[in-house]
Amino acid sequence: MTTAEKLEAQESVKRWYHYYERHWGPPPDWDFKLKALARFAEFVGKEPDGMIKECLREVEGGYKKIRAKKRRFYIEKIREFEEQIGGFEGRQWANAIRSFFIHNGVAMSTDIMK
Amino acid sequence: MEFKEVVGRRRSIRFYQPWRPVEKEKIQTILEAARLASRAVNADFAKAIVLYRDQLSKEDLDSLKTPTTNVQLDTAPVCIVWFADLGAVPRLVQAGGPTLKQLVDVGALPPTHGWSHAYVESVIVPQVLSPIVQNASALVMLTAAEAALAVCTALYAAVDEGLGTLLTALNAEAVKRITNHPDDWMLLYGQLVGYPAESWDGGGQRPREPFEQDFFEMRYGNPFPRDPQVVDKLKQAKMIQDPAPLPWRRDEIRYLAQMFGLPL
After folding, report:
1. Cβ separation of B260 and A95 shorter than 8 Å?
2. What is the ipTM of this complex?
3. Mind telling me how many Å the CA of B252 is from chain A's nearest CA?
4. Domain range for residue A11?
5. Do B89 and B207 meet the contact criterion of CB atoms below 8 Å apart?
6. Surface of A (42-61) touching B: CB under 8 A
7. How would you label A85-107 residue by residue, b for 16+ Cβ within 10 Å and e otherwise?
8. Residue-range domains of chain B with CATH
9. Does the reported pTM lie above 0.90?
10. How many distinct structural domains can be found in chain A?
11. Taking chain B (264 residues) in consecutive chunks of 10 residues, what is each chunk's mean pLDDT?
């Protein structure tokens, strides 16, 4: 099984694709997105499902609540990841990760590019 | 702009031209409009502090953000922070109802309707307003609702000035630290103001529930009938506009995301 296949088997990655596609159509750069996620997973030493599980906790009524500290942790890690690559390219890689979190229900913010 | 069109053009704008400042006279016009909004007992419930993005440090700007209030705060050059002044009615009671007496004096509250200084002193202040001051939830509800009328007027004034605008949540602790507002001012919203980077119509008028679901005649359950001819007239007056999403909206967001370097 390739890294991409392993990633696509993760629930959080399926959810990402599903919600992205629902609003924006099939992602034309899906391979790039998976590559970025794989690289970020290596960067933080976590599986995608694990990252999302860390950020969301189940609450009464079947809802999920965001763990603010974990969210902030990943915002910071994505920023570091972006800086490591640098420039516009870094932003593209980092935005793929942000998209992964956003479509899993973890709002991710970033500064605008000037 | 005609009033109906102002109502029809209002959208919550979430992308602003970060490079284009807002003229100070337009900000003043927005505040002047808010000052003239309807307000119970003529008390000054609404208070505002104007923040200029470029005069805030990056740390202060970031501290105001919530998880989904980020791009708009980075791009809007002005944020009018609106408060409900919980001290407005208590001050009025303590002073014996001066703003009401003023309304009697200028003929806005005439004796034809039972108004007099004596009525203000013996009935309104001790029997109507004092109990509200003693009841915290009633005081909060009245003050917030009255202040919101001013905020609503400010929104429409911004649209009339050709600006984009949006009410947004702000981090209350950061607002307190940055503005040093009085403790009895309750934070309501940040009203962002700027020139839209997205199209002014934001991709179409936002969805609303059916008219008859919200408005009734005489009794609940008896819907107020919606006359299609009136609807047509309001369409001509640009109050009712094409509903969202307009066909190009998603492409617009793609381009905006690319322009500002944002995720999709």
Report:
1. no
2. 0.93
3. 12
4. 3-102
5. no
6. none
7. eeeeeebbbbbbbbbbbbbbebb
8. 14-197 (3.40.109.10)
9. yes
10. 1
11. 97 97 98 98 97 97 91 97 98 97 97 97 97 98 98 98 97 98 98 98 95 97 98 98 96 96 96
